[in-house]
Amino acid sequence: MKATDLIGARMGSCEKHSDSSGHDLRNIRCRVNWFVVKGGRLEYRGRITRQPFAKWCATREGREAITRVAKGIRFAIFGRARKARRRLWRGLDAASRTQAFRTAVSGEPEHFMQAMADVCYADALPRAHVALGRLVLAPRALITARARAGTYARLVQAPALDGVDDAVRAFLIDQIVIEMDAALASATPAPRRPVPARDGWVCIGVRLDTVWADPLWAGPHGSGHLFMYDLPPQKITRREHKALDAAIEQMSGSVSTLSRNARDAMLRAATLRRV
Questions:
Q1: What are phi and psi of 34, to 5 degrees?
Q2: pTM metric for this prediction
Q3: Which of 209, 198, 211 is CA-nearest to residue 150?
Q4: For position 236, what pLDDT does the model report?
Q5: CB neighbours of 166 closer than 8 A, spacing ≥ 6?
Q6: Pairing mode, if any, of strands 133-139 and 41-44?
Q7: Greatest Cα-to-Cα distance within the chain, rounded to the nearest angstrom
Q8: Mean pLDDT, rounded, for 229-254
Q9: Residue 99 to residues 11, 33, 53, 183: CA-CA distances in angstroms?
Q10: Contacts 24+ apart (CB under 8 A), 259-264
């Protein structure tokens, strides 16, 4: 998972988070996410930060974009590549400060939470019935792939991004999904601290250490899974919370003993059969 800008670090957290079983969430670093879970809801903070863009500039896609823009610059005292990089960032930064941009990006958490709920109906995923509700283990790769497709469809031609370089626009769309996923993991959901999704589903756990898919296909989300729970209408008792904790550990242990190929096959089956 990519680290983000530390400017304004008082908005973030420098603590090392652990999940309910004491496992360190290794990929969650001291960072300022573009999104935050606040009052149980995933929300856009209202601004983007520069460090993800700087990291993208070092990738093949970023270098190609910088080279392309630099070719159109006749002279720059500190180098055309540096000026091209500044120009790309300024275009994105200027767009991000508009109300149209904030409105567009502020709507993405609801779509991300819908994607989280939708994948729960893929019958190829591990599931159990606990305390009158359904508990589903959902790989992050499955959720983020679905969320990314929707975010791309909504934002690729959005007027809010007029004037933003096409390659930077593609980076932005991908980073928005990465940031929402990071904010959810940073919230360390648990049975006693659920994060609501949609359609009655809540997230009650995050595990990041189990590899599900080749990172060449799944990107930074090839490992880890969420635990989604179909919350019953009645209040969950302390005994039922303990039952959920036990079920989460049992399901995590079961998938960790599967071969890498078996997990990959399960993920692909869920991808093909999801609603």
A1: -75, -20
A2: 0.84
A3: 198
A4: 87
A5: none
A6: unpaired
A7: 70
A8: 92
A9: 21, 19, 21, 22
A10: 260/211, 263/139, 263/210, 263/211, 263/212, 263/213, 264/212, 264/213, 264/214
